[in-house]
Design a protein that fits this description.
Blueprint (H helix, E strand, L loop, with lengths): L1 E6 L6 H17 L5 E8 L8 E8 L5 E7 L2 H24 L1
Helix pairs in contact: 1-2
């Protein structure tokens, strides 16, 4: 699976690249039919501090799979987004095997 990570109006982070890539590679091992992942990191306007946005779009056979989350830290946003993607992938796998 190819992974593309983009930072919108913010500096790039090697640490976040490694963290996100490691998480996505685990997902790719579990679901070997994934083709690619596009990740966007950005900050949102929010008064309560939860302004770290992570959006991930997966390319796979059939419709693309998308998830996004807004959290206090980018790491927790990545974890939550990948949890959501995994729920969607489990559903897709169940429909593919039937």
């Amino acid at each position: 699976m190819t992974i593309s990570i983009q930072y919108v109006k913010m500096p790039q982070s090697d640490t976040m690249n490694e963290f996100t890539t490691a998480r996505l590679e685990k997902l790719a091992k579990k679901y070997d039919w994934l083709i690619s992942a596009t990740v966007h990191f950005k900050t949102a306007q929010d008064n309560n501090g939860r302004n770290k946005v992570c959006e991930i779009e997966l390319s796979a056979p059939g419709p693309r799979i998308f998830a996004s989350s807004i959290e206090l830290h980018f790491e927790s946003a990545v974890k939550e987004t990948i949890r959501d993607l995994e729920r969607q992938l489990k559903k897709r796998k169940a429909t593919r095997s039937n």
